[in-house]
Amino acid sequence: MKFHILSGLVAQVLSVSAGTIIWDGRFNDFTSSADLNKWSWGNQVGPYQYYIHGSSAVSAYVNLSPSYKNPADAGSKQGAKITLDNTAYWNGQNMRRTELIPQTTAAINKGKVYYHFSLMRKDVNAPATTREHQIAFFESHFTELKSGWLSGAPGISDTLLRWCVGGQTKWSVEWEADVWHNVAYEIDFTANTVGFWHSTGSAPLTRKVAPVSASTSSNGADWHVGVLELPRSGYPDSDEDYYWSGVYIETGDITTSVAGPGLAPVDPPASSSVVPVPSSTRAPVSSTTLATSTTKAQSSTTSSAAPVSTTPSGCTASQWSQCDGNNFTGCKSCAAPYTCKYINDWYSQCV
């Protein structure tokens, strides 16, 4: 009996020991989502930049509650429900989107780091399976989750949740309701690789995909915690809710416990009942160029030592891609027949 107790404690310690949080987005310091309104370009406070959303009040797009978090996530006081509704169009675009971006000067784009979050959906206001959704993505889309029908793919709908690198599916699973998917992107910005860790419920994270080569491009202010939905003619909007928990970035050894660094799981680890879909049965990944989103590099008013980079030579941006803006270092020429349209000082887009 003592042996079993000791073994359990050892296993718990091994699953909890981990690295150091360098950015914490777990909403623990928020009274409500209205706290997101304290951030602005002139008052860059709090853990998140909040500017990619529709025209309604913040509560139309982001809401917080203890009932929205993964019950096994002991490190979070509450989770977030991020919503797309019929007003969730930003800056006149035809893509619905609600996204939060880390507000930090931490080196979240240097060396090897782990981007953690948990994601869940319900049957009520479920994400449409007939449209492509880009979830927890970077500006260059070098890695992201996707759900729904991929733009340009055959068929009408797709029920998978996918992890993609450079637009190519590396892992997928049926996205069932009320199942928490715990994720960590293992990103090595020095080696230009990205790996994938995953579990469900309260089970510890395990590596599902070993690091693969990727164009790990990030200025440290372009990871989007939320969702961008690509438009599709003939399919009307419906409200969609995405539940988030345990959002943080760490360096050092990965935290495999869903509870968070230094904490014991609330529930005993349970094996996942969700089975990844073999690659032979997956729907083809579209070769259509993915729409990108806006970013905002760190303001010169907050950092006088911002890294300097040059625009890639000879490159062109595709339709919907960003093509200019303050501190933007990507492709500034649009592929024919598209032109670079000014949206605001921080963002222009190929249309």
Automatic annotation (TrEMBL):
Residues 268-311 are annotated as: Disordered. Residues 269-311 have a biased composition (Low complexity). GO terms for cellular component: extracellular region. It comes from the Eukaryota. Keywords: Secreted, Signal. Residues 315-351 form the CBM1 domain. Residues 1-18 form the signal peptide. It is found in: Secreted. GO terms for biological process: carbohydrate metabolic process. PROSITE patterns: CBM1_2. One of its GO terms (molecular function) is cellulose binding. SUPFAM superfamilies: Cellulose-binding domain. This is Feruloyl esterase B. The lineage of its organism: Eukaryota, Fungi, Dikarya, Ascomycota, Pezizomycotina.
